[in-house]
Design goal:
By secondary structure, the protein is mostly beta strands. The protein has strands at residues 25-31, 34-40, 49-55, 62-68, 73-78, 84-90, 96-99, 103-104.
């Protein structure tokens, strides 16, 4: 059995200091007149919450709702339907860490 060791820079709390790649992932579905947005970011340890952006076109997104992170994938229910959505990962003090791509809601 071969063990491979890796080196990575850690901060004082023992968490990675580099921003993971790729960007946060987003998926969404509409049921009746509400939208459920799913947000996740593989490898990100500093995400404390998510902000959903929604709108009628990719260039017309506005903040819709912010929630705390609940698990590896956070489901965020919004009480209305949006044609396009994206998510922003939030760190301490609601600072934006990264943004997902904008997707068209099916």
């Amino acid at each position: 059995m071969r063990v491979q060791l890796t080196r990575r820079r850690l901060d004082r709390q023992g968490e990675p200091t580099r921003t993971p790649k790729p960007a946060p992932a987003v998926a969404a579905r509409v049921k009746r007149s509400s939208t459920t947005v799913y947000a996740s970011w593989n490898g990100a340890t500093r995400v404390s919450g998510w902000r959903v952006l929604g709108g009628p076109a990719p260039g017309a997104l506005k903040p819709v709702r912010a929630v705390g992170r609940s698990a590896f994938e956070t489901a965020i229910r919004i009480s209305r339907a949006f044609r396009y959505v994206a998510v922003q990962s939030l760190g301490s003090h609601e600072r934006v860490l990264a943004s997902s791509r904008t997707i068209k809601v099916p």
